[in-house]
């Protein structure tokens, strides 16, 4: 009798496990459980158990890097459109945290509309105050609908479902999507306005030998919804180094889009063939603008300042110029890189952007172009500080990845991303449903814009571009604080 009971229980358990496995494989909400049926629930169990055990055996809320537990939790809750409030006050040790950012609110804040108020905007659209390309009369000059947009992440580095989710999500919330240097793919073609990034490999616009191809460039601009061109000089993850896409990720589709051999590692040069100084770069920029009619800008991390001084000298004449400038901080990181480049090459965003912006401001030409910041700026306080420093817009990358499912496993370069975001593995990719994740991305961008506006109104300002460094202070030790400006 007892043996029969145990057999019945075992059968029931096995049937339950099988039913759960089938459910996990068919559902589209959770990529971890879809890729790892049944056992994936262990992660959720540990996540729930973690806060109760954290003070004894795991890291606290602010220890992990590059994004700590509080950062990730805020992103996930915002993307899920759930309650992203935190109770019982801050758990940051403010008095013992030199460099801690403080936003100074106004005694009389601006009225903040509520859902029932006239003029309430559920999407919290914050258009740019500048028209990109207007100063140089580009045919395709436009005013971006959102000051917060998706930064450069290539198809190849990211999976097809991830790129599609970002494209659909960008369309939903009205922001721009940067293609990354891997070229424009059909997975970008889901309603979003695109910024096509041309890196040193000129992928999607190159001959077989890697030289820039005008015909392919124009064909791509005409085929897709490209609103602007970004020439990548360098990126924060590995400034001075070219990108690497392992051969295991170079599928026939990716090879065709990029114009490279199938299955062979794609090694981008660390420098451009078409120019080697600011003068030659401006010639290339004007060539791209003439061919496409679109605004053209550049993206770069900041190291030595000779290039920036030379660029400004050439632009002062007014004959040539970039339409926008994306400055990436050395803390940027969607690309895998040698550790020394990640840790020690290029200035952090706050320092690098300030130095470059001052060069343009001192020359009196800062209004001729749009300034864009990137490098861990995907949080309300960091976005607002970047705007106060002179940014007209900001780009987000890793936080956007988290919004569509990334769990900061930090194995992007292995092709084994467990959530299907940064991989070309067909089994892992199937765990990421583009429709569900596009909504999560749109929720994250919308929530970020909402909280940025709420901070502005708390400070008595109507738009992030109205913020100044006078609204901020930085804490120092011995109970002191200093203004930033």
UniProtKB/TrEMBL annotation:
It holds the Pfam family Glu_synthase. CDD domains: GltS_FMN. It comes from the Bacteria. One of its GO terms (biological process) is glutamate biosynthetic process. SUPFAM superfamilies: FMN-linked oxidoreductases (SSF51395). Residues 145-460 form the Glutamate synthase domain. Keywords: Oxidoreductase. Its EC number is 1.4.1.13. GO terms for molecular function: glutamate synthase (NADPH) activity. InterPro entries: Aldolase_TIM (IPR013785), GltB (IPR024188), Glu_synthdom (IPR002932). The keyword NAD does not apply. Belongs to the glutamate synthase family. PANTHER family: ARCHAEAL-TYPE GLUTAMATE SYNTHASE [NADPH]. This is Glutamate synthase [NADPH] large chain. It comes from Mariniblastus fucicola. The lineage of its organism: Bacteria, Pseudomonadati, Planctomycetota, Planctomycetia, Pirellulales.
């Amino acid at each position: 009798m007892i043996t029969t009971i145990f057999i019945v229980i075992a059968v029931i358990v096995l049937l339950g496990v099988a039913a759960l496995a089938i459910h996990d494989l068919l559902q589209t909400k959770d990529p971890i459980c879809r890729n790892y049926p049944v056992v994936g629930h262990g992660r959720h169990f540990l996540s729930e158990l973690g806060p109760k055990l954290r003070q004894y055996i795991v890291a606290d809320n602010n220890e992990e890097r590059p994004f700590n537990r509080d950062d990730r939790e805020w992103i996930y809750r915002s993307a899920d459109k759930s309650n992203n409030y935190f109770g019982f006050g801050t758990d940051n040790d403010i008095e013992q945290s030199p460099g801690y950012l403080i936003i100074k609110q106004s005694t009389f804040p601006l009225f903040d509309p509520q859902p029932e108020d006239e003029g309430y905007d559920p999407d919290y659209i914050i258009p740019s105050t500048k028209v990109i390309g207007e100063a140089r009369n580009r045919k395709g000059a436009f005013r971006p609908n959102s000051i917060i947009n998706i930064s450069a992440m290539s198809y190849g580095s990211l999976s097809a479902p991830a790129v599609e989710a970002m494209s659909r999500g960008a369309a939903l919330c009205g922001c721009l999507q940067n293609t990354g240097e891997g070229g424009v793919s059909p997975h970008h073609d889901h309603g979003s306005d695109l910024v096509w990034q041309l890196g040193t490999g000129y992928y999607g616009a190159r001959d077989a030998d890697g030289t820039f191809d005008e015909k392919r460039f124009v064909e791509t601009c005409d085929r897709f919804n490209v609103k602007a061109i970004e020439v990548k000089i360098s990126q924060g993850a590995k400034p001075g180094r070219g990108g690497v896409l392992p051969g295991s990720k170079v599928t026939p589709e990716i090879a065709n889009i990029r114009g490279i051999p199938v299955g062979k590692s794609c090694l981008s040069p660390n420098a451009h063939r078409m120019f080697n100084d600011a003068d030659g770069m401006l010639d290339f920029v004007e060539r791209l603008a003439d061919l496409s009619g679109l605004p053209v800008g550049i993206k770069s991390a900041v190291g030595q300042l000779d290039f920036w001084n030379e660029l400004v000298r050439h632009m002062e004449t007014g004959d040539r110029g970039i339409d926008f400038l994306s400055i990436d901080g050395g803390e940027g990181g969607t690309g895998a890189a040698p550790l020394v480049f990640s840790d020690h090459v290029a200035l952090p965003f706050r320092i690098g952007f300030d130095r470059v912006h001052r060069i343009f401001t001192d020359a009196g030409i800062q209004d001729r172009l749009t300034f864009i910041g990137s490098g861990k700026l995907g949080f309300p306080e960091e976005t607002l500080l970047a705007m106060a420093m002179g940014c007209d817009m900001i780009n987000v990358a890793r936080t956007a990845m988290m919004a569509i499912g990334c769990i900061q496993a930090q194995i992007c370069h292995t092709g084994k991303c467990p959530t299907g975001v940064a991989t070309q593995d067909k089994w892992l990719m199937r765990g990421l449903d583009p429709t569900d994740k596009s909504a999560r991305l749109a929720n994250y961008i919308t929530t970020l814009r909402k909280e940025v506006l709420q901070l502005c109104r708390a400070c008595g300002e109507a738009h992030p571009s109205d913020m100044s460094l006078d609204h901020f202070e930085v804490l120092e030790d011995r109970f002191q604080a200093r203004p930033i400006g």
